[in-house]
Amino acid sequence: MNTTTHSLVQKLWNYCNVLRDDGMSYGDYVEQLTYLLFLKMADERSQPPYNQPSIVPAAYAWPMLLAKDGDELFDHYRHALERLGQEKGTLGLIFGKAQNKFQDPAKLRRVIVDLIGAETWTILGADVKGDAYEGLLEKNAQDTKSGAGQYFTPRALIQAMVDCIAPLPAERICDPACGTGGFLFMAHTYITDHNKSLTRDQLKHLKEKAFTGYELVQATARVCAMNMMLHGIGSEKSVPVVVGDALAVDPGERFEVVLANPPFGKKSSTVIVGDDGRTSTEKDTIERDDFWATTSNKQLNFVQHIKTLLTTHGRAAVVLPDNVLFEGGAGETIRKKLLHECDVHTLLRLPTGLFYAQGVKANVLFFEKKGASETPWTKQLWIYDLRTNKHFTLKTNPLTRTDLNEFVALYRADSRPQRKATWSPETPDGRWRAYSYDELVARDKTSLDIFWLKDESLADSDNLPAPGVIAREIVEDLQAALAQFRLIAGDLGEVVEE
């Protein structure tokens, strides 16, 4: 983060502390900034040298906010949010169900004049304004009480995944569970950084057609839309974010690249309360003709959905919890089908302590969709173990892009056939090795939960992590186990409160 970006983040964030005294949460603050930023940027685009017609009705546009003060401003702002939320398209996406969360008209006025109004946002580079907004989202994710962390994937991990996938200017890129849009804008940044002489048509493609995100939660979708706009994707007139359940149907569109971190820990059943007050459960089982197996496991359904979304030879990098690698039943069926119909070539075992959601043990699975074949497309699965003997924390020892340098180098995005293992009987501490298709299907339930490194803490007490790290890992293990038992109980028709 450069100096300009950092100062802008601090300027915006410092005022949040003032508003928190009025009961405004971090998430509420980011939402209010989103509304005001949109109106300010739409107004800037309508002025010279752009002279673009604004989609915001004049009665609710930025100049009207500037012209008002006190209770008049308060009433106008509330009415504007309500009215704009009734519009279709981008306005409906940004302002849908919007509410004024300010308690004091003077503080609203200060945000409008001193914070948003003091900057000319359209002349700020996409890297400055995009990174500034992203800095706010990261701060918001760190607030464990808000629950915003569930939508936030560590940016170092996203960057490494994008570096491995290496998207191209002409490709279409999708995130079916896009959260705040981190994968999409990072792919955009990668393409612009690695292609300095893009044509006018290529730039138009990147702005209008290259990226598509799906998000279930309206409030998160609006933040994603703003995040993408600030990073140069879409415009005030059209933002490629679809609000809705991505798993419900096959959208029909196909993409060359899918990057995703599907939501963890969703319940496998919905609790229904009847008129008599009695509760029952309705399994959230997805039945689709394009799926290999019917299951209530959301992550397994996302694997199947992503397979559908890909074009032939399309590439995917997906963050998945451990249970997707070893769960029996539908899990085994899906893994076998995936190994057969796709080239499942790489698995990155992630360390604990990366995600704001507790109890998550996750991996990144890389695969390429192939055409019909009688023989399996997967020949070898290369596994990089970044988990064993690695200890990260969100605040004191966060994962950095540097920590993933070895993996990205060994991945060899440009020449996968030339990969070389770092593990051998002579070098047993190597973190990179391959398993053949026959070895994989011979494992119980075709489990891909594979590890070989010796845990140093078990062999030598001197290598034990700090007590705080041990305690956190115990908590995470217990939470992960509880999450699994809740899923099992849900499948058996039992409701287990969290």
Q: What structural category arises from helix and sheet content?
A: alpha/beta
The third-level CATH topology of the largest domain is Rossmann fold
> How much helicity do the residues have?
40-55%
Low-confidence spans: 144-149, 266-282
Strand order of the largest sheet: 3-2-1-4-7-9-8-10-11
Number of structural units classed as domains: 2
Q: Rg from C-alpha positions?
A: 24 Å
Strand content: 5-15%
Series of secondary-structure elements, N-terminal to C-terminal: HHHHHHHHEHHEHEEEEHEHHEEEHEHHH
Q: Could you state the CATH homologous superfamily of the largest domain? A: Vaccinia Virus protein VP39
Strand elements, count: 11
CATH architecture of the largest domain: 3-Layer(aba) Sandwich
Mean pLDDT: 86
3D architecture notes:
Helix 7 runs antiparallel to helix 11. Strand 2 (211-215), helix 11 (218-230) and strand 3 form a beta-alpha-beta unit. This protein starts with a helix and ends in a 7-residue tail after the last helix. It has 498 residues and is an alpha/beta fold. A nine-stranded mixed sheet has the order 3-2-1-4-7-9-8-10-11. 42% of the residues lie in helices and 13% in strands.
